[in-house]
Design a protein that fits this description.
CATH topology of the largest domain: BirA Bifunctional Protein, domain 2
CATH architecture of the largest domain: 2-Layer Sandwich
CATH superfamily of the largest domain: Bira Bifunctional Protein, Domain 2
Oligomer: single chain
Strand order of the largest sheet: 1-5-6-11-10-9-7-8
Shape: elongated
Number of domains: 2
Bound molecules: histidyl-adenosine monophosphate
Length: 420
């Protein structure tokens, strides 16, 4: 038997109600903050991500699903949405229609990472991007929205971590300081970090190697060397979070795994998902629009991993979904009434009721079992003497009450059900 590819997962019918509940919650919150949905293709030209996310990042360096198509174009399955959204923003000049464009999305993403609990090769993100304003209030809004979504899903074990990476000039100055600090410790760094020392020194903060972490923990902190504007903006974000009652910690090592960030970065971690703790992450990216060929335009955003959030919800037993049910199950007492039952089901479905019946010629007892399994609200018994007299028996499955109605008056009965 051929199985699903490692790191991918089927979302089976039994899982769907939880996904739908999450998606509805996400859409409700985004609507309240006036974000409009955007959908972009599953693949893009590789350059969008290579340039956008940064050549030296793990995503671009090791994790992208990149292939050449029959016209020799290098394409990549999207590993994240931000660069794709910015490509669409530039291509359709969305900023010309509106100075601030607030977008949200829900989409599968692809990264060839080592699969483990909460980490997949095809996973799903929801997220938002606000393009066109420098206001730190929008950075705070990203945290408020993601926090509100996670709280609406009744998650408890959350930590909001924030940091500021400053402007590019601040960062260049800081990189020099970091270089001086690491110069005589360079040989003790892991091979990856030694390479990053030369190519993209800030990425050393991403290293999971313990010896690297020991060295880097005493390094000067970027947050202590911020320019005035970044410092002021960071204060505004902190102030807004306090005003909205969102607890947070400052994490000076939060450089994030993508190169496009400027100023604010944030993550929300859960203590309920094992090693992969980040439920969502994001921040400001004031240079990306330009990098991808647009006019200089400030922007900020975040994305969250749906599988990971659902795992946290499951581990915390945070919300429960009513079991799926149907309105009516039609039980056929006489087998020859099959076609009549099918016709009746059609009529009831047109009245907007969810209806099912037996297609396997099973006994009345087996049909009743099926009705129970489907949590039918009503069962209609069709056949026997009643049918001959133009009637049928109806059972209300929650009260146990039974009544006889004429086949003629079915419409009135349906209207009654629809009112409840
Ligand atoms: P990211 O931190 O790479 O950011 O991903 C955001 C979230 O996606 C993570 O916190 C995690 O929950 C989920 N995620 C990432 N990789 C995997 C995986 N392999 N399996 C399961 N879940 C995963 C971004 O993608 C940025 N585009 C966020 C952003 C938007 N920044 C500004 N705007």
């Amino acid at each position: 038997m051929i199985k699903a590819v490692t790191g991918t997962k089927d979302i089976l019918p039994a899982d769907i109600p939880r996904w739908k509940y999450l998606e509805e919650t996400v859409e409700r919150v985004f609507k309240n903050f006036n974000y409009k949905e955007i959908r972009t293709p599953i693949f893009e030209e590789t350059a969008i991500f290579a340039r956008g996310i940064g050549e030296e990042t793990d995503i671009v360096g090791k994790e992208m699903y990149t292939f050449t198509d029959r016209s020799d174009t290098s394409l990549t399955l999207k590993p994240e949405m931000t660069a794709a959204v910015v490509r669409a923003y530039n291509e359709h000049a969305l900023g010309a229609q509106q100075p601030l464009v607030k977008l949200f999305y829900l989409s599968p993403m692809f990264r060839q990472e080592r699969p483990q609990a909460g980490r997949f090769r095809q996973f799903h993100q929801f997220g938002a991007e606000a393009i066109g304003s420098k206001s730190p209030l929008l950075d705070a809004e990203m945290i408020q929205m993601s926090y509100e979504i996670l709280k609406s899903l009744e998650l408890k074990n959350l930590t909001v971590k924030i940091n500021s990476l400053g402007t590019p000039e601040t960062r260049e100055n800081y990189k020099k300081l970091l270089k001086i600090f690491l110069e005589d410790k360079k040989n003790k760094l892991s091979e990856d970090s030694r390479r990053r020392f030369e190519t993209n020194i800030l990425r050393i903060f991403d290293s999971k190697v313990e010896s690297d972490q020991k060295i880097i923990k005493d390094a000067p902190k970027l947050i202590d060397h911020l320019d005035d504007e970044s410092k002021k903006d960071f204060e505004v974000v902190k102030d807004q979070l306090k005003k909205s009652g969102i607890p947070f910690v400052i994490d000076s090592a939060l450089v994030r795994g993508l190169d496009y960030y400027t100023k604010l970065t944030f993550e929300i971690d859960s203590g309920s998902v094992g090693a992969q703790t980040a439920l969502c992450g994001g921040g400001r990216y004031d240079l990306l629009i330009e990098t991808l060929g647009g006019k200089p335009t400030p922007a900020t955003g975040f994305a969250a991993g749906i599988e990971r959030i659902l795992l946290a919800c499951e581990n915390e037993k945070s919300f429960s979904i009513p079991e799926p049910s149907i309105d009516v199950y039609l039980i056929r007492i006489d087998n020859e009434l099959e076609s009549f039952v099918s016709e009746l089901a059609g009529k009831l479905r047109k009245e907007n009721l969810s209806v099912d019946f037996d297609y396997l010629q099973r006994s009345v007892k087996a049909q009743m079992r099926e009705a129970n399994k489907m949590k039918a609200k009503y069962v209609f018994f069709i056949g026997g003497d009643e049918y001959k007299a133009g009637m049928m028996n109806i059972k209300n499955m929650s009260t146990g009450e039974e009544e006889k109605i004429s086949l003629e008056s079915i419409r009135e009965f349906v209207a009654k059900i629809n009112q409840r």
